Amino acid sequence: DKVIEMTDVWKSYPNNVRAINGINLHIEKGEFVYVVGPSGAGKSTFIKMMYREESPSKGDILIDGVNITKLKHKHIPYIRRKIGVVFQDFKLLPSLTVFENVAFALEVIEESPSVIKRRVMDVLDVVLLKNKARSLPSELSGGEQQRVAIARAIVNNPEVLIADEPTGNLDPDTAWGIMDILDEINHRGTTVIMATHNKDIVNTIKKRVIAIESGRVVRDEVRGSYGYES
Ligand code: ADP
Ligand code: ADP
């Protein structure tokens, strides 16, 4: 089953930068995919279009068979339920506790307090942070903050977890810990798509590699390697 399908996708920004130049691909349910390529190649644009942070100038993007390029604004919650996102800089709310940061996404969809409590503690367990539920982000290490961000991204049980350079701000040991968790989430059935510059990780934990250069897919390998010097 395909979870993401892109057909003839192009993206120009208003300043006429042509970030994506004709991408066709699909990603199957349950895959783990690295997105690699030089800075400015279009990796962020490519993944931002999957959760409609950016819209293509041309072409179609289907998430679970639904064409998100044609969705009306009021249907954007559909995408939020299907896709969780984590960023290099975590983007946690600094005045909320770990529990509250993760619960936020469920409160928006008006789940009951008991469901929220159970679900939040379940995902904090997955990221090994149950004992930090009452902490503030500022009291956590970078790796712990990223794990909170991952918990927040999966608390709605999305089909896909997208990670844009999730280890970019972390030291190597901490980065490997994040990979263990992403691997675990993938083994539980979530499709994981990760843009990364981490050569060691890509070359060690072998997965599908999609390489993007100048807005085009230049390489797509089932158990690929990083393929760049650094
Ligand atoms: P990568 O993630 O591989 O570094 P990006 O997708 O961020 O690449 O950028 C691809 C190209 O699009 C670059 O030339 C970048 O400067 C440009 N770009 C990215 N975002 C915007 C934007 N919001 N407005 C204009 N140009 C952008
Ligand atoms: P990322 O980690 O997502 O690649 P960037 O540092 O590339 O972040 O971009 C930060 C923000 O600035 C993003 O929202 C991106 O869309 C925007 N941006 C990136 N390149 C450009 C550009 N050339 N012109 C305008 N906005 C840009």
Q: What's this model, at a glance?
A:
One of its GO terms (biological process) is cell division. This protein has helices spanning 43-50, 76-82, 98-108, 113-126, 142-154, 172-187, 199-204; strands at 2-12, 18-28, 32-36, 58-63, 66-67, 83-87, 160-164, 191-195, 208-213, 216-221. It is α/β, with parallel strands linked by helices.
Task: Walk me through what this model shows.
The protein has helices at 43-50, 76-82, 98-108, 113-126, 142-154, 172-187, 199-204, and strands spanning 2-12, 18-28, 32-36, 58-63, 66-67, 83-87, 160-164, 191-195, 208-213, 216-221. The chain is α/β, with parallel strands linked by helices and 230 residues long. The radius of gyration is 17 Å and the shape is globular. The two termini are 34 Å apart. One adenosine-5'-diphosphate binds at residues 44, 88, 164-165. Belongs to the ABC transporter superfamily. Homodimer. Forms a membrane-associated complex with FtsX.
